[in-house]
Amino acid sequence: MIVTAETHPLTWRLRPDRAPIWIDEYRSKQGYDAVIRTVGKVAPPDVTTLVKEAGLRGRGGAGFPTGVKWSLMPMDPRFDRKYLLCNADEMEPGTYKDRLLMEQLPHQLIEGMILAAWALQTYRGYIFLRGEYVVAADNLRKAIVEATAAGLLGKNILGSGFDFELVVHTGAGRYICGEETALINSLEGRRANPRAKPPFPALVGAWGKPTCVNNVETLNNIPGIVLHGVSWYQGLNQGKSKDHGTKLMGFSGRVKKPGLWELPFGTTAREILEEYAGGMQSGYQFKAWQPGGAGTDFLTEQHLDLAMDFDSIAKAGSRLGTALAMAVDHSVNMVSLTRNLEEFFARESCGWCTPCRDGLPWSVKILRALEQGKGQVGDIEALEQLCVNLGPGKTFCAHAPGAVEPLQSALRYFRSEFEAGIRQGVLDNRRDIAGVQPNLLEQRW
């Protein structure tokens, strides 16, 4: 596969030895050319219009149109303090795309943030980084020092009169910080609870000021769009999808070559699994997959020929999410896998609203009983009701609805594995009753 700036705008600069690309090498590969052409020379609203026309959608999982999000930020000069936040709190199990970009291409993220800051006229930016990403933090901080020394950050960038400073802020390790308002609370030094919306961050965000929150991969797309234009960006998917541009996609699990690759939207999951990831390891058969992280619905082999884009995966009953898929092999019990996922989500709940705080631990308790063969009649129905009660619109934020996606889909496609846990529990109860009160056995059963 030939990798060029025209076909792989996110990854073409990567070195074979995976070493970080510092400012001299980055600038020799068209780095900061978009900033030089734009800051102080192109009107900020025109940059927003360009991003909107390109059709860039958020790469954090939700897929909200980036240009539309930018257009919600007030441009009235009276709003003299506005913030740009980069959501780098990559804690979705099975997801590691942003780590690659930050560790090896820190200047690409910085360039994207400078362009976004110019478009939004924000004076300060924060990269809210997962605390465990120590290497990424070190590399980003070094890159910020380099960019500042080169006059690309700080006061009067490139003599334009525009000021923008950038700070790396490491979090304390909470999954809920991936929700943008919980991230803002944490940044302010508060407990990482989501906020009520409205008001939305675009009007009342960090420290009560207008704030825009974008994902790492989203911001990495901006330099290419500004440099090469709308038609180029929309042509990257080769007509395979209504979603424009490229996406970091991958497969993990018991595949021969787990990893991630920059691919055009519309590439099928089967192509990624078989051609890029090399298929399943010897002795393991494919059973199911999650398209984009732990908080997406399971799909089956019949869905592998779907295009990896937002609409196609949504129509199949799941979400594209981060587009880093996980393959489940035939040796995995779906009850155990689902219990493991729900245990994670229950532990990471902020505890702010009752359905999430109490419902997720309840699901774990039932799943653990089923896993141990101690399930009771009605357990599956209870889990299905929990999926409804924790669904969209029933909780304060999207944590619980995302948490029950793998559960509801596992029940849909692999119900027999859950029923097996109940049957064993019923048999055990029968034996217990028969040994203690034989006459009662006949009455109950």
From TrEMBL:
Organism in which the protein naturally occurs: Pseudaeromonas sharmana
Recorded family membership: Belongs to the complex I 51 kDa subunit family.
The name this protein goes by in its record: NADH-quinone oxidoreductase subunit F
Gene Ontology molecular function: NADH dehydrogenase (quinone) (non-electrogenic) activity
EC number: 7.1.1.-
Function: NDH-1 shuttles electrons from NADH, via FMN and iron-sulfur (Fe-S) centers, to quinones in the respiratory chain.
Chemical reaction(s) catalysed: a quinone + NADH + 5 H(+)(in) = a quinol + NAD(+) + 4 H(+)(out)
Encoding gene (name): nuoF
Cofactor(s) needed for function: FMN; [4Fe-4S] cluster
Domain spans labelled NADH-ubiquinone oxidoreductase 51kDa subunit iron-sulphur binding: 335-380
Pfam family, one: NADH_4Fe-4S
KW Cytoplasm (keyword) present: no
Keywords from the named record: 4Fe-4S, Flavoprotein, FMN, Iron, Iron-sulfur, Metal-binding, NAD, Oxidoreductase, Quinone, Translocase
Domain of life according to the entry: Bacteria
